[in-house]
Amino acid sequence: MILNPRIFVGVAAVGIVVAIGIVAFSGQQFINDISNSPREVLPITVELEDLSIVEVTEKYAVLEIKFLVSNPNLKSVLLSLLKYQLYEDDIRIHAGEVGERGGGFIVGSSYITILSQGSTMISDEIVLRNTGNTPELWSALTEDTLNWKITGDAFFNLSSMTTGGENEITFEFTK
Fold first, then answer.
1. DSSP-derived secondary structure for 58-118
2. CB count, 10 Å around CB of 19?
3. What are the φ/ψ torsions at residue 142 (nearest 5 degrees)?
4. Residue-number span of the structural domain to which 17 is assigned
5. Which residue of 70, 85, 101, 136 has the fewest C-beta atoms within 10 A of its own C-beta?
6. Domain identity same for 57 and 120
7. Cβ pair 137, 93 in contact under 8 A
């Protein structure tokens, strides 16, 4: 049985027409995704949701900090790193971070995906050791009468490490 070569040409032509139709009807979003043109990236927002004392003993204290990160962009955002410093009466008592910032070759990822126009809660546990050098701090922790200040930076990209470039925002809260 010999097949007519016109059938193969017809199938190929239909395939090309279908591919062109998909690109044409998917709108500019598909073309924007594959183009190298720079894209406007709206800054994410970071809000302090909660800072609470979980446990205080004579040897250590456990705190929990929660941030609400919101993405106003129409595409998903990859939050690569959220780093923060915790102060009590302008004395830094802790520096923490969630995630990791890519450098050089990207080996792994602990990025947090924040969907388009969505929010994600990010929390971290803080363990403070009582060295005996700051009795005022330990007393304030026990009585929960602290004056907190939290400062930090968040590093993010649009939906991939290469889209929209790396972006950074800073934040500061008092509680």
1. SSEEEEEEEEEEE--SSS-EEEEEEEEEEEETTEEEEEEEEE----SS------EEE-TT-
2. 10
3. -65, -40
4. 5-34
5. 136
6. yes
7. yes
Q: Are residues 106 and 30 in the same domain?
A: no
* Structural domain contains residue 123: yes
Structure tokens at 22: 């998909």
pTM listed for this prediction? 0.74
Q: Is the CB of residue 120 less than 8 Å from the CB of residue 112?
A: yes
User: Do the Cβ atoms of 87 and 44 come closer than 8 Å?
Assistant: no
76 and 13 within one domain: no
Name the H helices within 111-165.
Answer: 135-143
Q: Is 140 left (phi over 0), alpha (psi -120 to 50) or beta?
A: alpha
End-to-end CA distance of the chain: 82
Return the residue matching tokens 């005022």.
136
